[in-house]
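1st attempt posting a full record on here, be nice pls
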Amino acid sequence: MAHALLSPSSAYRWMHCPGSVSLCRLFPDESSEYAKEGTLAHAYAAHILDPNQPKPDEAIPSENLTFVNDYVSYVERETAGGIRQIEFPVAISEVTGEANAKGTIDCAALIGNTLKIIDLKFGRGVRVEAEGNLQLSIYAWSAAQYFSLFDEIKEIELHIFQPRIDNIDSWKLTPAELETFVNNARACAAKAISYLNADPLPPESLIPSADACRFCKAKSACPALRRKAAEAVDFKPITEAGDAIPIIPEEALSPEKLGQNLALADLLEPWIAAVREEAHKQMLEGVHIDGFKLVLGRPGNRQWTSAAEAEELLKTFKLKENERYSYKVITPTAAEKLYKAGRIGQRQWPKLEQIITRSEPAPVVAPESDKRPAWTPAAQPTDFQPVN
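the predicted structure (as tokens):
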């Protein structure tokens, strides 16, 4: 199936930066090891849930299969007693306006009068939320055209299952709310399509932002993002020529200035990474870039060309066994896999749980829109005593 220009998975980008659709056409779709890993996990999940789906030829790592089985259990629990479709192809052209455009839903099901859209997210870099999810909303509207033939749809549920970061999220909305969203998506899609044949693109068509640019193929060559970067580094002088320069300008460390710079960092860091990646790719192809060259990095870690040969040779050195081998107890994660596989019994596992601990999460900076509650530093103890 050809990839739609206005795909549901990139809906946030084309709804907020309509000119990006035209710009992205200049860049080929390229897969990565992470994408291949996710594709394989999806294929295994689909085959387990629906044996009519093709069984992958490639083996899947046991750890990833555990995540897949967790997803399968979740789908079976959430869709029990309903009409279910796995790897469900749907037409999205009525939303995006792109002729013959289609998408594929991981799982769509009608349970009573509730339509459920369940999406497996195998990545762990970015936490995906169900509330207001544009991709799943487009899928829900498209799936409703099919499932409404069976019964009236009174409620829609969007589900995200992201097992590698323990993120299971869901959100409910009404058919009327979904229709409002779709009408807005149609208007945004029409604007994006109107720019497809524009050359040059009008400045207002490209609207860079951290979320819109994150997965954009064209960010390394985006003129609007480059202009944003230039504006960011064109700092206004804090002092006039000849004035004394403070060691730490108060303006540079003010909460207001730090907030502005953090927002810029979220936008510019992915752009910088994309520029470096594109330069590396072109230089590997023999392209010369003024002022830069390719050099060899540090060599990898040393390893035996043959572990078996090394083992036999070390035995001849009259070394003690504990000098030739290193042993360590399995991790709690590995033990849990044995428990789920039935190798550790139901009565045995609680005993292990009692001796499992994990470090407390460290505080990290996040935008106000993050769903996690704000963390407030505890008052630090002091050696000084108040004077009465």
